[in-house]
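Following up on my earlier message about zinc ion. Here are the inputs again, as you asked, copied directly from the submission form:
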Amino acid sequence: MHEYSIACEILDQVLKTAKLHEAKEIKSVTLELGQLAHTNPDQLAFCFDVLAKESLAEGAELKVEMKAPTIECDCGYSGPVKKPSAACAEEKLQSELLEYISALACPKCGKNARIAGGRELLIKTIDIEI
Ligand SMILES: [Zn+2]
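Thanks, got it. Here's what our run produced:
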């Protein structure tokens, strides 16, 4: 599972940081996750929980902050993609990702724009007890 290997890497980094600060306990970890990162936050939290057992991070809460994608266009526009239209929302089977891909037209000029952000997966903060 994709989320499992990501959780492994996150735990690895978190434990290294905790060791550096001689932490006794890791209370929580906050992640920033782009909506285009193809990662399920619930599965990620579940894997992290399982992997963290019997480590400093056992019982630590994994908080995930979702980040909406942003785009850049030749016309100079840079910012969020436009929200899917009401007609689009009727298609309940459509995944969130597909909605975003279909909404990558520039809201200013209507041309296709480049994805500038939304694929990131970063550790934002680690809350430790020393
Ligand atoms: Zn544009």
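One observation from looking it over: Residues 73, 75, 77, 106, 108-109, 111, 113 surround zinc ion (CB under 6 Å). Hope that helps, and feel free to reply on this thread.
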